[in-house]
Amino acid sequence: MTHQPAIPTLRLALLATLALLVGILATPLLYAAPQPDPVPRRWELTVEPGPLRVTTINLPEEGPRAFYYFTYRVTNNTGSDQTLAPIFELYTDDGEILRSNRRVPRDAVRRILEMLRNPLLEDEISIQGPILPGRENAKDGLVVWPADNFRINDAIIFAVGFSGETRRYIRPDNGEEVLLRKTLELRHEVPGELNPRSSRPLERVQQRWILR
Q: pTM of the predicted model, to two decimals?
């Protein structure tokens, strides 16, 4: 009896191997994002972040509007004068990235400052400028964002301007060179829907320095 070569079986094996190779090649390359230096080699200010909260302000011409607000203290322990010019962004898991102080009426900031009753608390514009060394020269800051969507699960603050550490980085996916800055990341979880009238602090689940 003559045996025919097992061509179909061999062909199936080759096709399976090719499919596996194509799948591997088509899988996006995973790469680790660069991390800040373990020991800072550039100037760095000491930041003590306060809670992130939501409140409702009754504005004269608009009526009730909700806002996120966040307070912090910054101290210059570098031993020399530094310039303070922080930038804050708030990212929510609905895909929105909010730059602080945008779409925030001046009257809303004033009302929140009055509500907090801290005579040393400065808004985002007033706090900018020289910061002298020493605990006695620490500054307290207020940051405000509009709160339009209460159905979120996460809220992340990215704060840049407290460190001089930067790094040029070539992205492996497209070869583009980008400048990364040391950034303070504060991650919060929102259990259920936000209550814009409670002023309860959002739960902070992570605080770390990253390059962004």
A: 0.82
Domain boundaries, the chain: 46-211
Residue 165: name the closest of 177, 183, 140 by CA.
183
Determine the Cα–Cα distance for residues 198 and 200; give it in Å rounded to an integer: 5
Q: Is 46-211 a CATH 1.10.150 domain?
A: no
Give the residue among 14, 22, 10, 34 at the shortest CA–CA distance from 209: 34
Element (H, E) at 19: helix 7-26
**Are the CB atoms for 141 and 72 separated by under 8 Å?**
yes
Share of the chain above pLDDT 90, in %: 71
Dist. CA 140–CA 128, nearest whole Å? 11
Q: Structure tokens of 72?
A: 């912090």
Secondary structure class of 8 (helix, strand, coil):
helix
The pLDDT assigned to 162 comes to 98
Amino acid identity at 51: P
What would the pLDDT profile of 111-164 be if each residue is shown by its tens digit?
Answer: 999 999 999 999 999 999 999 999 999 999 999 999 999 999 999 999 999 999
